[in-house]
Structures are given as C-alpha cells and as structure tokens.
Amino acid sequence: MSNYQRTITYEPDSNEKLTLRELLKKWLIPKKWQHFLRVEKQVTINGQYHPFNTVVNAKDVIHLNFDFPPRNDNQTYLPGKNELNIAYEDNDVLIVNKPANIKSHPNLPTESDSLMNDAESYLAPAGHPYMVHRIDMLTSGLVLISKTPYLVPIFNRQLTTKTLKREYLAVVKLLKPINQSGSINLPIGDDPSDVRKQRISSDGLAALTDYKILRKNNDFALIKLNLHTGRTHQIRVHLASQGWPIVNDVLYNREKPNGNMMLCAYKLTYQIPFSNKFRTTEIEPPTFMTDFIQKKD
C-alpha cells in the first residue's frame, strides 16, 4: 500500500454513534484534508464512497487516501553517523532516546550531525523520518518521529490539544526554598540582551509548568515536570526564575557547568492515530542524573 493510504477497522468507544464527518474530526484529520477526501471521494466505507453524514458502524472498514498536495514530504536529511537508541517503534512512529548535546534536527540542509540525520540513516532506503517535535540540544530524552508524512499534522494537533504529552525530570540547585509541588505560571519572551536566551516577560507568551519533588537535600532536588505549554527553554527559564536553576545549564545557571545539563524528557504519551487508545513510553533517567543526586545526599 502507498505511503499515503490507510485502512482502519473501526472500533467505537462503548456506545458511540458517529457520522463519518464526526469520526474524521475525532481522528484530528485537518479540515482541508476532510474537504479533499469528500470532494475527490478518497474515503470509503467497506469499499464504497458514502456521504459524510453516514453513521459508521463497528467493524466497518474505512479506507483513506491522503495522496494529494501539498504533501508533507519535503523534509530531506543527509544520512547521520550515530546509532539510534530506540525506546519504541511500530509502522507509524519511532520514539528515540536522544542523548544530551545532539541537536534534534539540522539547522542547514548541509548538516548531518542531528537526531533526524541519524533517523534518516536508520530508516533508509525504504523510509524517511518526519519531524513532529523537538527538544533542546542540551536536553536528553524521548523524541517522537513520524514514519509517514500524513501523520505529522495529526500529531501536531495532538500537541496543540495536549493529547501528546511529555514529562521531564530535572536536578536543580536550590538557591531559594521550594515547595513539595506547585505550578509556575509566567509568560516567556525573547531576551534582548542575549539572542540565545529567553526570559520572563510581561509581554511574552503564556507558559505554565507543574513540578513535584521526588528527592531533595539541602542543596539540590530531583523534580518531575509537566508542561502545559511548549515555549522555547520553558522549563529552564521557569525553574531559574524561581531560584532553582538546572544543574549544568550553561545559559540559566550562573555556576560553571561540570558535565551534561540535568534535564531529561523521560515519559511520552500520545493517542495512537485512528484509534481511541493511548500509548506511553518511559525510560530510566540518565545515570549522570540519578548518580548525582545520590552522591549529594
């Protein structure tokens, strides 16, 4: 089957009765794609085209053909040189544990030293990677990569609706007191004094981070973090603003770094495309983080 076609056997939630239009909306298929599927009759139920107000029944076989412009297949990457640390893989996605100090994607087409370059080598020659989201170069942890271009807008909608969630672990220096748990709700904008940095800014973009302490001593804490928004350097800026800079953060911690930044995206949850089910992938935090907090006790 083409890289742009999909066949699904419909499994409804309990007693739900959805029309084809409602089902495509629930699957987060973009409106412009729904329009194409309807006008070009590129969606069928049990082999036949039906109007969008048709109710879909359990075990109906739905076939979708996304082979239309503009197709999201213009991402091309040079082959990389490093092996991937794969946390999960199926026909749709590749979830990779990115090491610290490797970029998620190249800044220029001529670069070959990013995670997406390594994914290009891994999937070649039969497939290619399609970027869904990124994490900072200095941050380690889970990154979801799509194997099929038509899933990228669907995953993007999951990011927007917070259906695709990421959880982080960080080791912070306690320059100020910290509660056992809490939220940081402060807007973030560009730092005019340093193009590399962001800062808390009244005219910045809304940003919300939840935190919870897992381990703590007088000087350091290992904390779990949930993002409600996805601003650049959000965790790093929010924690530093409270007097809890991340250990070895070269931008937001005034202490000279001694090793990798202690921030890891350790857990990723997403809705399996064209289904009602969710999948969670979780990794152990890097040993340099867990060893550090244990040695400091």
How would you describe this structure to a colleague?
There is one protein chain. With 297 residues, the chain is an alpha+beta fold. It has 3 domains: 5-65, Ubiquitin-like (UB roll) (Roll), CATH 3.10.20; 72-161, Pseudouridine synthase (2-Layer Sandwich), CATH 3.30.2350; 166-265, 2-Layer Sandwich (Pseudouridine synthase), CATH 3.30.2350.10. 17% of the residues lie in helices and 28% in strands. The chain contains 6 helices and 15 strands. The strands form 3 sheets. Strands 4, 5, 6, 7, 8, 9, 12, 13, 14 and 15 form a 10-stranded mixed sheet that branches. Strand 4 (86-89) and strand 5 form a beta hairpin. The radius of gyration is 22 Å and the shape is elongated.
CATH class of the largest domain: Alpha Beta
Low-confidence stretches: none
Order of helices and strands: EHHEEEEHEEHEEEEEEHEEH
Examine the coordinates and then state which fold CATH places here, giving the name of the CATH topology of the largest domain. Pseudouridine synthase
Q: So what's the overall shape?
A: elongated
Major beta sheet, specifics? 10 strands, mixed
Structural class: alpha+beta
Rounded to the nearest angstrom, the distance between the terminal CA atoms is: 56 Å
CATH architecture of the largest domain: 2-Layer Sandwich
Percentage of residues in helical conformation: 10-25%
Protein name: RNA pseudouridylate synthase
Catalytic activity: a uridine in RNA = a pseudouridine in RNA
Organism: Companilactobacillus mishanensis
InterPro entries: PsdUridine_synth_cat_dom_sf, PsdUridine_synth_RluA-like_CS, PsdUridine_synth_RsuA/RluA, RluA_PseudoU_synthase
